[in-house]
Amino acid sequence: MNEFEIDKRQVRRAFSRAARDYDAAAVLQREVCTRMLEKLDVIKLQPAHVLDIGSGTGWGTRQLGERYPKAEVIALDIAIGMLQVARGTSSWWTKLFAAKRESYLCADVEALPVASNSVEMVWSNLALQWCNDLPGTFTELQRVLKLNGLLMFSSFGVDTLQELRTAFQGIDGYNHLSRFADMHDIGDMLVAAGFADPVMEMERITLTYNDVRAVMQDLKSIGAHNATAGRAPGMMGKAAWQRVTENYERLRRDGKLPATFEIIYGHAWKPAPKTTADGRAIIRTDFRL
């Protein structure tokens, strides 16, 4: 058994339960989404179909709809509760902007019920870290994109919640946090999946809290539970939790406890194939002088 394998049923339940209060707590998610949207300013693509992977309560979906008013924006999330909130939030928006087309799909990104070569843009804000097979996921995303289509995403990197990870060290033999992929490895995965011209960026965003319980409550409010196979089967004991608190308190700076999030941004394009299905080379004749 892979102790870091993510239990998708647990993920689905956790995010559905968190859906009603998600927007009030998802400060980091909105900030990262905003920064991703700014990166679109230099991209000339005008997609007719946008697939929003891990759309949550639909805040980012609505921003995409505003940016591309003629596009069909497909909001896809593994948690039905998130999509139910998204639909309720979007009702007034749809009435106000009649030309806007928005649809909802409850599915797992690792097995997309989406036709091949059907969308011009795949967008995903802080969702890919919930995938067990990230190389296979990128292959799946490449499949649904049309030629010259764009994949743009953000995800958590290896230093995410490094303070909390340190606080849990030596407490017991269980996993308490997910394992995140390295930025350079993700770039290699994109190339292996057939994407061209991948661009990777990374930044660290640090949130501060008054105490450890506030850190944990924030994570719970956005549905970010520990869903790995190696998690503890029950609640942590009082003595163990006290040790975690003491370990975290050693990291207090300027009166606050830090929680670091390493944010990985990436985008890449689906290029025209260089060979046919039977291996013959394709020679382009549409060059422009």
From TrEMBL:
It is an enzyme of class 2 (transferase). Gene3D superfamilies: Vaccinia Virus protein VP39 (3.40.50.150). Keywords: Biotin biosynthesis, Methyltransferase, S-adenosyl-L-methionine, Transferase. Its EC number is 2.1.1.197. It catalyses: malonyl-[ACP] + S-adenosyl-L-methionine = malonyl-[ACP] methyl ester + S-adenosyl-L-homocysteine. The keyword Methyltransferase applies. Pathway: Cofactor biosynthesis; biotin biosynthesis. InterPro entries: BioC (IPR011814), Malonyl-ACP_OMT (IPR050602), Methyltransf_11 (IPR013216), SAM-dependent_MTases_sf (IPR029063). The keyword Methyltransferase applies. One of its GO terms (biological process) is biotin biosynthetic process. Transmembrane segments: none annotated. Residues 51-153 form the Methyltransferase type domain. One of its GO terms (molecular function) is carboxyl-O-methyltransferase activity. Converts the free carboxyl group of a malonyl-thioester to its methyl ester by transfer of a methyl group from S-adenosyl-L-methionine (SAM). It allows to synthesize pimeloyl-ACP via the fatty acid synthetic pathway. NCBIfam families: BioC. Belongs to the methyltransferase superfamily. This is Malonyl-[acyl-carrier protein] O-methyltransferase. It comes from Sideroxydans lithotrophicus (strain ES-1). The gene is bioC.
